[in-house]
Amino acid sequence: MTEKLYFFTFCSIALFLCLLQPTVFSVASELHFSIEPSDVVVVEDQIFVWDCAAEGETSINITWRKDGRVTEDDDRRLVLANGSLYFATIEHKKRKVSDEGMYQCVASSDVGTIVSKVVRLQIATIPSFTITPETKTVRAGESARFRCKADAIPEPAYTWEIDREALSRNDRYIVLPSGVLQIHNTRSSDDGKAIRCIAQNIAGHRHSVDANLHVSPIDSPTDEGTRRMVILPLGLPHVVKRTGDTVVLECLISGAHETDTKITWTRQDGKKLNLQRTSYFGKTNLKIEELKATDSGMYLCTAINTNTHEWVYASRRLEIHDPRPPIITVAPVSVSLAVGRTARFSCLADGDPQPSIQWLKNGEPVNFSGRINLAGYTDDMVISGVHTGGPDQDDAMYQCVAENIHGQVQASARLKVLKSLNGPGPPQRFRGYSLTATSILVSWEAAESPRGIVGYTVHYARESGGREVQIPVSPDTRSYLVEDLEQETMYVFYAVAYSMAASSDRSEIIHVATRTYYEESPTFSLSNTPAGIVVRWDEVVEERYRIYYREHGEDVHFGHVDVNGAQRVFMIKGLKSDTVYDIAMSAFSSSGEGKLSDVATIRTTNQQGFLSGDATKMPPPTNVWVEATPRGFIKVKWDYSVAYDIVTVHYSPPFGDQELEVTVDGSYNEVVLTGLQRDSEYKVYIVAYTSNNITDPSPEMIVRTRFYVNPWQPTDVRAIPLSSTAVGLMWSPPLNESVSFYSIHCKPTSGGQEIKVLTNGDLNKYLLTSLDPDTEYRINIAAYYDPQFSEDVTVSTSEED
Q1: pTM of the model
Q2: What b/e readout covers 676-686, taking b as 16+ CB neighbours within 10 angstroms?
Q3: Which residue stretches of 553-638 are H helix?
Q4: Which residues contact 276 (CB under 8 A, 6 or more apart)?
């Protein structure tokens, strides 16, 4: 009967969820930006208006953020009624107040909040010369080249003056976009001219110092035997442009009369120039418009003296980049769902390099933990058991933000959570109790419902993050034992009630931690490989294990090695060949080291052939594959060449740090590396073993971990020794919510009594005292939110005697 009732409950809940189909909203009716700000360069002390506008069904309030903080209206800067940001005067960054920075437009309404892409405001600067023109001497009929360069925001444009007058328009004077001035077919009348460069942008202009042009007669006493024709500029200029741009490749003859030379341009790879997009700029330079990726390559400028038949050439390398700012190819779609359903928002983006994806909820980063996760190896966001009401309600505006080095783009969608007017109330007095190291009992009182209850679901997930589990139970059930949990781990629980018409809101959320094993010792087995002794054991705790080993004998002290609690296999290396060793194990929890196991003995094999490299080795694992996960871990997978007893995955940062390793049973073909540095490159390779053989290392793979911050965890913890018995602690609070209190755990690394201290949640520093001198301690800090108190009890003391 119980099994039938449970089956009916499961089917009823499943049918209810399936019948509540999601409703897709019209994008145009939802809150969205109709005008989004872009990067700007503005002029100091001038008025500036930065446009931003949003549309939606309800009234909208627009604010702005600068460098992550909300801007406050004052007599100089304010948000206009239409949402634009008005600057009465732009302040320069060198003054106490600077308007330079990164800005966002923020649009809020009754349905939630969205933010624009992050845009930059820069203040224009007057050009400052880094290269000024230099005096030149040429023979009449030859060409002269002057160059200038200035730094400024934005990039300046260049003009030139001769004897303080603007250049006259003729084919003798050519000004290149790079700022170079070419004077062709010089004359005696050019001799002694004063030449200067003018660099100008929206902030103003600046003149360079004067340079002079000296022109000597054609029949001047010059050693014709030493004068040679060359092409300027010298060297191999490397020009980098973007697709769609226009480029001018420079080629100027020096050492020969222009009327006696002929210039031709070709491609070194033999391809023909596109005559529709190429032309001569001036007499000798090559201009290419509407650049394409196929225009990349080496270009040759060849000059021939038609009198002497002397010829020279120069190369110009052109590199075309195709910068692809991010575009969102699949945008999230607004949807309405009943309480208890699962929402999934998809987002795909394209660009070069491939954009990263970030999710926002009401303008703030989404806290990925428990019910909210990324779907598999995609960037899709999944929200399980959606609910409304409370500070963490799911009814909100969500945004997918795609970003690469070329820019940022966003798309928004709304999740509307529907609550039935005839639905049941939430389960009452929801409570949880830790029974063992792997089980928690939850209980509740019946939910109120005008149409009766057809069942409940119990939801739980690790507080630190992970996929939420949902368990259906019968309508008469008032408690449920959740088993197969991780020991000494904090879990988050809540329950939902269901009628045939609808589901309820969530019950209150509770946080319960599993217990710790104290007395059990690991049960282990031993085997050999040519590289050492393999220890395998059953799970006891998840903090760490300690393996003791020594050469067999009463007067020999044990050495030991500590192993991560997630491992179940470890190989002790560096041992003597053909020698008997004693092995024992213990398990560590937050309460300290557990009971030591019985001692086992094993004799090592003769390892000399393999250690010296003389033996024939097995082939290593193949198809080694590594991937960085969104949580900052590295997943490693491989295929077997032959059957292995154990596999060791080695990993380390490319520079500096010591190499680490994880050993797994030979039946495994994947492992997840944890405890890694964020946003860091790691080298990974694999070595496998059998009882009588060993493989060469697999080829090294390099992977970069992804950046992830646990929003519930204190960060930047620093410990400063203040005396022989005192340590000062400082930390940064978690990103999410206010903290009720912190729990500080301090324990000697060599073992001993752990110190536990509770401190107020609005503090971020603490002084630990009464510590032992010259002792190393391991310290960590946990944050606790919304502590759950028992029901009230009333008691009176007895009357005075």
Answers
A1: 0.56
A2: beeebebbbbb
A3: 608-612
A4: none
Q: What is the DSSP letter of 117?
A: P
Distances (CA, A) of 709 to 359, 362, 369, 736: 14, 19, 11, 11
Angle made by CA atoms 360, 365, 369, in degrees to the nearest 5: 105
User: Nearest CA to 342 among 469, 449, 444, 463?
Assistant: 469
> Alpha helix (H) ranges present in 224-329?
none
Please list the residues that pair with 335 across neighbouring strands.
24, 415
């109330």: which residue's tokens? Answer: 425
Strand partners, 199: 158, 206
Report in angstroms the alpha-carbon separations of 187 from 146, 154, 170, 213, 327: 16, 37, 14, 11, 56
Q: How far apart are CA 441 and CA 161, in angstroms?
A: 88
Distance, CA of 644 to CA of 393 (rounded, Å): 50
Q: Which secondary-structure segment (H or E) carries 650?
A: strand 646-652
CB–CB of 299/335 below 8 Å?
Answer: no
Q: What is the pLDDT of residues 82-132, one digit of tens each?
A: 999 999 999 886 667 789 999 999 999 999 999 999 999 999 999 999 999
Q: Is there a contact between 401 and 408 (Cβ–Cβ < 8 Å)? A: yes
Residue 72 CB contacts under 8 Å (≥ 6 apart), including other chains:
none
User: SS3 sequence, 443-464?
Assistant: EEECCCCCCCCCEEEEEEEECC
Q: Distances from the Cα of 209 to the Cαs of 168, 193, 213, in angstroms?
A: 20, 13, 13
**Quick one: tokens of 508?**
């209150």
Query: How many helices (H) and strands (E) are present in the chain, helices listed first?
Result: 2, 71
Query: Which is nearest to 80 in space by CA: 115, 105, 117?
Result: 105
Residue 485 in this model has a pLDDT that exceeds 70: yes
Q: 179: closest CA among 139, 142, 152? A: 152
Tens digit of each residue's pLDDT (9 = 90 or more) over 550-604: 888 766 678 889 888 878 899 998 888 888 999 998 887 654 567 788 899 999 8
Give the whole-angstrom CA distance, residue 668 versus residue 638: 9
Distance, in Å, from the CA atom of 720 to the CA atom of 723, rounded to the nearest integer, reads 9
Question: Can you tell me the mean pLDDT for 756-785?
Answer: 84
H or E segment and range at residue 19 = helix 2-19
Which of 322, 324, 323, 327 lies closest to 117 in space, CA to CA?
Answer: 327
Q: Please tell me whether residue 655 adopts helix, strand or coil conformation.
A: coil
What are the structure tokens assigned to 535, written together?
């220890």
CA dist 718 and 78 (Å) reads 40
CA atoms within 13 A on the CB side of 559: 9
Distance CA(178)–CA(51), nearest Å, equals 33
Q: What is the mean pLDDT of the chain?
A: 85
Residue 728: phi, psi to the nearest 5? -90, 135
Sheet strand arrangement including 670-673 = 622-628, 634-639, 670-673
Max Cα separation, the chain? Answer: 133
Q: How far is Cα 643 from Cα 507, in angstroms, rounded to an integer?
A: 51
DSSP letters spanning 192-225: TEEEEEEEEETTEEEEPPPEEEEEE-TTSS--TT
The per-residue pLDDT for 608 is: 52
Backbone angles phi, psi at 190, to 5 degrees: -80, -15
567 phi/psi in degrees, rounded to 5: -85, 150
Burial of 212 (0-12, 13-18, 19+ CB in 10 A): middle
Contacts of residue 793, defined as CB under 8 A and 6 or more positions apart, other chains included, come to none
Hey, what are 673's tokens? 């590396």
Is the CB of residue 169 less than 8 Å from the CB of residue 244? no
**Would you tell me how many other CB atoms lie within 10 Å of the CB of residue 445?**
12
| Contact criterion met (CB below 8 Å) for 50 and 84 | yes
Instruction: Determine contact, residues 729/768, Cβ cutoff 8 Å.
Output: yes
